Amino acid sequence: MRKIIDVKPLEDYKLLLTFDNNIKKIKDMKPYLNKGVFKALQDKSIFNSVEIVLGTIAWGDIDMCPDSLFESSIDL
User: Do 33 and 46 touch, CB atoms closer than 8 A?
Assistant: First the structure.
């Protein structure tokens, strides 16, 4: 299982993710912003509060699978 070791919020609801193998990827979160719990991320202050919790990214109670993030993100 991959782990995320660094995350930086970028403009336009994108995230710069660094994985435990030092690969950096960009994840576009815009497709999620109108779905379920992810609607809260439309608020930029909440989106920008992203943090690493147990090897993945989280916004409070909202988190995502690191393996899924690795597979669905664009290589930098």
Answer: no
CB 29 within 8 A of CB 41: yes
Tens digits of residue pLDDT in 7-60: 999 999 999 999 999 999 999 999 999 999 999 999 999 999 999 999 999 999
Enter the CATH code of domain 4-75. 3.30.2020.10
What are residue 38's phi and psi, to 5 degrees?
Answer: -70, -15
| Both structure tokens of 17 | 């993710």
Q: Which residues contact 29 (CB under 8 A, 6 or more apart)?
A: 13, 14, 15, 38, 41, 47
Boundaries of every domain in the chain: 4-75
* CA 44 – CA 19 distance, rounded (Å): 24
Q: At 51, which helix (H) or strand (E)?
A: strand 51-53
